[in-house]
Design brief:
By secondary structure, the chain is mainly alpha-helical. It has helices at about 1-10, 15-30, 35-50, 60-80, 90-95, 100-130, 145-170, 175-190, 200-205, 210-220, 230-235, 245-255, 275-285, 290-300, 310-335.
Amino acid sequence: MKMDESRIKHRGRFSQVFIYLGKLFRMFVFQNDWKVLPMAAVIAGLVSFVVGANLFKTQEGTLMGAFALACICIWNGFFNSIQVICRERPIVKREHRSGMHVSSYIAAHMIYQALLCLGQSVITLVICNVMGISFPLKSLITPWPILDIGITLFLITYCADMMSLMISAFVHSTTTAMTIMPFLLIFQLVFSGGFFQLEGPAVKLTNFTVAKWGLEALCSQGDYNSLPMVTLWNAIAKFQDVDAGDYLISIGEEANENLDEGDKIDFSSINGYKPIQGFMRYAQESGSREEILKWSGENNQNTVYAFEPSTVLRCWGFLILYIFLYAFVAVLSLEFIDRDKR
């Protein structure tokens, strides 16, 4: 028996990776960790139902839809691993004192979480396709646009997963981990750089978020800058039923007060005049509406969403960098677990 314990204690790093990987797969089956997969399908279905109609069709729809997809991935990644280390912290401490290599332990988690994130990304793509989302026809990196987007979704999910794994390595209880997670999510949303106008030092903080690089990659892959913009048209449409006649009549009556009786003008004939409605009807009948939407889009382009391979590769590069950075910090944190007196 002592011989067996000695062998287990002195197993190499590579062997320990597979030992802990097997443990994680058993937990996947017997501790219901598989539930994150159907949860990803439900979330993807809800988001696709709400924002899928205009995704990759208009600039506003693409920005909102890309932001929603990034949020799905970040949410999935956070839930995957936010509790996986802190929930068994006493076990990790005991096994570390018995010869466990922290790098092997984290490597096993990285492999397991990568497979989990891959499954969630595939499920998200399938659900989006079933919900009728029209994916771009042109690709930038691989020959298939849907594969490009799939890689982006995987990297966003995996990067968020590694961030929460790092947090799980730091904190000492699942309660603390679940308390921190909402703040992490809010930080990702606010500093994504997509919806909120940020200035000064706040702009630099966006570089440290997963959401920013995911959003930029998805908008680039959706060819954001070539899409029409509908905000201007929709804003004008809100005023199409405004009766400008009353306003013009009041102005005319004020002008008539300064004129002689014979020079006064009768403005009553313009009552009910709706110039914006007339303009919109003419634009639709003449086919000018699409030109107006295209012109609006051309004047609302964003250079960070350029439809170029370098844009996507840059975003992927930052996500991969953060993945390994978070994993390294997690290893570094657990190396000092023996000093934890709590």
